[in-house]
Amino acid sequence: TKAADVGADLVGKVEKNIPEDDPRNPATIADNVGDNVGDVAGMGADLFGSFAESTCAALVLASVSPQLQANWGSMLFPLLISAVGILVCFFTSYVATDISPVRQERDVEHVLKMQLILSTVILTPAAFAISYMFLPAVFCVSMPGQECTVDTRATWFGAFVCIASGLWAGLTTGLITEYYTSHSYQPVREVAESCKTGAATNIIYGLALGYKSVIVPVLALGATIFVSFQLCHMFGIALAALGMLSSLSIGLTIDAYGPICDNAGGIAEMAELGSSVRHITDTLDAAGNTTAAIGKGFAIGSAALVSLALYGAFVSRIGATSVDILEPIVFVFLLYGSMLPYWFSAMTMKSVGIAAREMVVEVREQFARIPGLMEGTAKPDYERCVAISTKASLREMIAPGALVILSPIITGFVFGVHALTGLLAGSLVSGVQMAISSSNTGGAWDNAKKYVEKGCVYVDGVVQAKGSEIHKAAVVGDTVGDPLKDTSGPALNIVMKLMAILSLVFADFFNTFNDGEGLINWTQDTIAK
Length: 529
Known about the structure:
The protein is mostly helical. 77% of the residues lie in helices and 2% in strands. The chain has 19 helices and four strands. The protein has helices spanning 2-15, 28-63, 72-75, 77-92, 94-99, 107-134, 156-181, 186-194, 199-212, 215-245, 248-270, 275-317, 328-369, 382-396, 398-415, 417-453, 469-505, 507-511, 524-528, and strands at residues 138-140, 153-155, 458-459, 462-463. Strands 1-2 form a two-stranded antiparallel ribbon. Strand 3 (458-459) and strand 4 form a beta hairpin. The chain is globular and about 75 Å long. 54% of the residues are buried. The model is unreliable at 524-529 (pLDDT under 50).
């Protein structure tokens, strides 16, 4: 669906100098439909998948603990976390509607952010209460087949800390994402100012911003993983993922807010409403870009934690007690795994480029062959552009999907389970950082364009608004960022989770070949013979 966005911007704004979502633009309907498909349905499915997988992982790990099996409360503790999260988020939503509604333009981002902060603050004591009430004082968290020792015992307070660490790591990721993608802060304003010297410097600044935005979220994720594993082992990792996703209701709400406001602006433009209406929708849309980026940050962080939990289950399933990265086959596939997100991103980015090229050609042809289209006396063929996006999205996803599905299966079948442990670890470590960077880079470019359109950039005292060369440079950056933040970035979440799930499902199958060494035994002893 990003093809429509790119085509509409390049031909409509840059070449024809007409407003965004102008009804004369043949790609505008496909663009608005695509926002709903990608940012609402797609992101919702991604977060729901993380939610379901982390819940299932925690339930499975709880089922092998004798102490947690003793009563239904402790056995179904993961579901209690989710239930409390839904209730807290429900009451927190009244902040935006009744307690502290938006009254001024500058309040929009603040109110949305406060919902996220308040839900996290209220969920912390709520998690403490349910941990104290429903978990035993001490319980075993050993993996299936392992004996319960001092090192594999956990406490209810340790479980609470795991939940809280995930919860606050999610908030930290959200706030850092807001800082790097909102034009209320310096990073995005620097990107907007860089447009004064052209599209090239805009892209350079945007890429640098994306790389820098990875630092704090990864540090928060690392701290969460370390603390959770030390306190509750793999059960703690699953609890941390549930903690991060316990505010999912608010996260999804503010994520869906973005495309709703974007489409409202599109409808206002197509209905030829007054400029004051479009100004309001643009303000809401700018805040929506930031909240959408926050939602993507939550999705990436939770996907990393869920993937790690599934990775631990896979390692236990194959009968391994540790993973030795100094083993040649493991290290080699660690490198290969870290390469896969780049390969996958290259395929998805090129797919958007191919579809966008078709869209640009179609839009140009319609402007050329339909008399009166530019004057507004004739209607464009919207259906043709929607068909191009739909067909391209189905056609171009075959190869990236095959890459994700076949990589772990071929590796485990041919090279063995030890090679697969390296592949999964590499793809997780590389994928989470690339996903954060791509998402924040695209969000920053989008809001840098909005900052220019608000008339906040000056050259020699003259406002550089829509239609200026600076605005065109900002549009180019936004166009480059669309497939980063809405295609490659979010899709890497699926890469991390799907590879881990497939490996776990096929673990027993892989172990049937040369005791897990693969169809071709690549161990050093075999090669020496």
